[in-house]
C-alpha cells in the first residue's frame, strides 16, 4: 500500500467490516452521499479523476468490491460468494456504517451490475443510479461489447481452467483486458499510477480466483435472478442514467437505450466519446453528464 501513489489526497481511508470481511473505502466531501463502484481489473482508483470534483458537492465514497483492491476476497466455489446480491449487501453495510441509509450510486462494469441488482432488491436504498457502459443481462452490442462478453465467458468457465490461464501471465492478461476496451486499443488513457494499483491488486492467486468467481456468479445466479425479475416485470424505480462509450457500443446507442427502457421507469442516456473506461478515458465529459444527472 505504501509503495503506491495516493490518488485521493484529502480522502480518509478505512476498512469496514461487512459480510465479505473487510471492505476498503476512501471518503471525502460533504452533502448528499454518493457511492462509486469500479469494474473488472480495476479498484476504487478508477474514479480518481472524478472523485475530488464530485466531493465538492457530495459526500463521496469510493469502495473496492469484495475480491478486488484492498477488500477481502472470501473463499468461494461456483460464484456463490460473489453474486451481485451478496455484493449489494456489502454496499448496504458500508454505507450504513458511514451513516447513510439512502444514497446515490455510480457504477461501472461489474460495479454497475452490483448497482443494478441493488436497485431491484432494495429500491428504498437508492436516490439515483448511474450505470456506466453496460447492457442488461451481459448482452453485447458492438465490437467492444463482444470482446467483453467473450472474456466473461472465459472467466466464468469452471475452476481451475481460467485461473491457470491467467496465472501464466497475470499482468499481461490485465494489460490486454484493459487495452482492448479502450477507444485507442492502448493503455494510454490510464494514469500510470493507477495502472500500478491495478497490477498490484491483480497479481495474486486468491484475487484471480475471486475475479473468476465474480464472473461465474454473473453467468449463473446473477443471470437467473435477472431473468426472473424480467419475467415478473420488476423495474428499477429510481431515476437512472445510462452512460456508454461510443466505441463500446458503436452505432447501437439507441438499441442500448431501448434495452434499458425495459428495466428502468425513469431513464435518461448519454453517449460519451470514449471506449469502455469512461471515467479514465473521458473524465470531463463523464463528469459533466454525472454532475447534471446527480
UniProtKB/TrEMBL annotation:
Keyword match DNA-binding: no
Keywords annotated in UniProt: Hydrolase
Pfam family, one: Abhydrolase_1
InterPro entries hit by this protein: AB_hydrolase_1, AB_hydrolase_fold, AB_hydrolase_sf
Entry keyword annotation includes Transport: no
Residue intervals of the AB hydrolase-1 domain: 32-283
GO molecular function: hydrolase activity
Superkingdom of origin organism: Bacteria
GO CC list: membrane
Name under which the protein is recorded: Alpha/beta hydrolase
Organism, scientific name: Methylosinus sporium
